[in-house]
Amino acid sequence: MHYAERERLLLAPYAMHATDSAGRAVAEQDHPYRSPYQRDRDRITHSSAYRRLSHKTQVFTRELGDGRGDYHRSRLTHTLEVASVARTVARALAINEDLVEALALAHDVGHPPFGHAGEAVLDELLRDEGGFNHNAQAVRLFTRLERRYPDRPGLNLSAEVLDGQRRRAAKPARTVEQLTPEPTDLRAPLLEVQVVDAADSIAYDSHDADDALEIGLVTLDELETISLWRESADRVRSRYAALADGDLRRATVHELIDRQVSDLFAVVTAAIAEQGIASVAAVRSAGVIARHSSGVAEQKLELEGYLFRAVYRHPSVLRHRDEAGEALRGCFERCLETPEELPPAFTTVAAEESLRRAAGDYVATLTDRAVLDSARLARG
């Protein structure tokens, strides 16, 4: 079955249909059985930047906890979890699951080593070059730095995937100092873009708490003071008796995700019905509807505030964050001192833009391990 027919049968009228795509910067022949958004997904997952996410920090560096990094999330596992949550919501809402998956897999590709700590360092180092924002860096990777074709740069992704990522870049970057920036656009993005943003929030709220428990930065008793966690744990206890702490933690994380997803779905479906949303144009005019109810939104803010105080500002996290930042800063400076050692793609950036921007682009591609290895070599 051709993808256009499949989408006609399965997708809601307010979903983004691939046949209505604005296309690509360089036109391509239609594929006989893969939609444009399926092709986008495949290009993203086969990119070098995507593969490197497996060795980039989400929140906790490899050295925290047991020192092996065997449990807590990497940037790649976080991305896969966001994609999983987003696909679930997309299918329930009958919106374009292929587009949602592509957007979810793309959303963190621009992250440098060491997560938001690395982003803050690069933003400082590139202040006179326009700064550094991981969402904008993803667009830069997709349109300039990645090489898929011998005759042109970039991945030639669809306009909808690039526009979705550009909208993320236009918002303030999520940092531990600003956890939940509110969208300010009057003209809302596609519902597929909204769902991925909401799925990202659901994933990091739930899994940052889980990782912090596993590493030992917080305790179950401490999290029980947070209403969203406590109510989720109480639901688990009502179904199971006398759970060991590990089983309780895992079941509570599942319940926490399910509660947020269910609440999001209820709010979106109610908004669609109340506003009579029956087209993509109506979605764009409706404002952001992929939101949580006021009660759950307040509980999420409480949880995020707790994670900020108890986890993201924990002395051991800050210590490793500072050490990682120094290693990244040193790697950047070595690029400036020996520009001839930059790979060819980055020497082109140096010639066409600036050496500092080229150094930033290069360092941002590196994994945590590569930066730390470079620091060790520099120390001799």
From TrEMBL:
MF (Gene Ontology): dGTPase activity
Gene: dgt
Source taxon at top rank: Bacteria
PANTHER family: DEOXYGUANOSINETRIPHOSPHATE TRIPHOSPHOHYDROLASE-LIKE PROTEIN (PTHR11373:SF43), DEOXYNUCLEOSIDE TRIPHOSPHATE TRIPHOSPHOHYDROLASE (PTHR11373)
SUPFAM superfamilies, sorted: HD-domain/PDEase-like
Protein name: Deoxyguanosinetriphosphate triphosphohydrolase-like protein
Family: Belongs to the dGTPase family. Type 2 subfamily.
Keywords: Hydrolase
Pfam families: HD (PF01966), HD_assoc (PF13286)
Lineage summary: Bacteria, Pseudomonadati, Planctomycetota, Planctomycetia, Pirellulales
Segments forming domain HD: 75-205
SMART domains for this protein: HDc
InterPro entries: dGTPase, dGTPase-like, dNTPase_2, HD/PDEase_dom, HD_domain, PHydrolase_assoc_dom
GO BP: any one term: dGTP catabolic process
Stored CDD domains: HDc
